[in-house]
């Protein structure tokens, strides 16, 4: 518990010029939209794989509350070059698009999100 709080504090003390980037994934809750049996694991696993391919200090992946019957997770980054990181995340998600589509996953890359 304390390790997570320390990590969040360190993450929030980055320079004032830093901007945020959030990648959110979601997966439907119906059995037709997932094949591995664990509907809430898909978004977390997808973001863990994405995190491995992205440079920089990333926070997450973390599960979010279910919204409209969809399991969700997010990955947050603070960076001085959010467009470059967003382009890299988009490139990696594009390469994974066929597998994500088969698994019923959707992903959104948001630069400077209104809320976290």
Folded structure, characterized:
With 116 residues, the protein is of the alpha+beta class. It is 39% helix and 32% strand. It contains four helices and four strands, in the order αβαββααβ. The protein has helices at residues 2-12, 41-53, 82-95, 97-103, and strands at residues 19-28, 58-67, 70-79, 105-111. It has a four-stranded antiparallel β-sheet, with helices on both faces. The longest helix has 14 residues, at 82-95. The radius of gyration is 14 Å and the shape is globular. The two termini are 20 Å apart.
CATH topology: Alpha-Beta Plaits
Give the integer mean of the pLDDT values. Answer: 80
The DSSP helix count reads 4
Rg from C-alpha positions? Answer: 14 Å
Spatial strand sequence of the major β-sheet? 2-3-1-4
When the domains are counted, the total is: 1
What is the CATH class designation? Alpha Beta
Distance between the termini: 20 Å
CATH architecture: 2-Layer Sandwich
Which stretches are poorly predicted, pLDDT < 50 over at least 5 residues? 31-37
Largest sheet, if any? Answer: 4 strands, antiparallel
SS-based structural class? alpha+beta
Number of strands: 4
- Beta-strand percent range: 25-35%
Report the helical percentage. 25-40%
Tell me the series of helices and strands, N- to C-terminal.
HEHEEHHE
Tell me, what's the shape? globular
Name its key features.
4-stranded antiparallel beta sheet, 32% strand, globular, 116 residues
């Amino acid at each position: 518990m304390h390790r997570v709080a320390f990590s969040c504090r360190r993450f929030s003390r980055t320079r004032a010029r830093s901007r945020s980037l959030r990648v959110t994934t979601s997966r439907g809750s119906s059995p037709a939209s997932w094949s591995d049996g664990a509907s809430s694991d898909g978004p977390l696993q997808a973001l863990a794989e994405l995190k491995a391919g992205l440079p920089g200090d990333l926070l997450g992946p973390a599960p979010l509350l279910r919204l409209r019957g969809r399991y969700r997770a997010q990955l947050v980054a603070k960076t001085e070059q959010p467009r470059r990181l967003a382009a890299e995340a988009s490139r990696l998600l594009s390469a994974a698009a066929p597998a994500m589509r088969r698994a019923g996953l959707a992903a959104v890359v948001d630069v400077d999100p209104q809320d976290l």
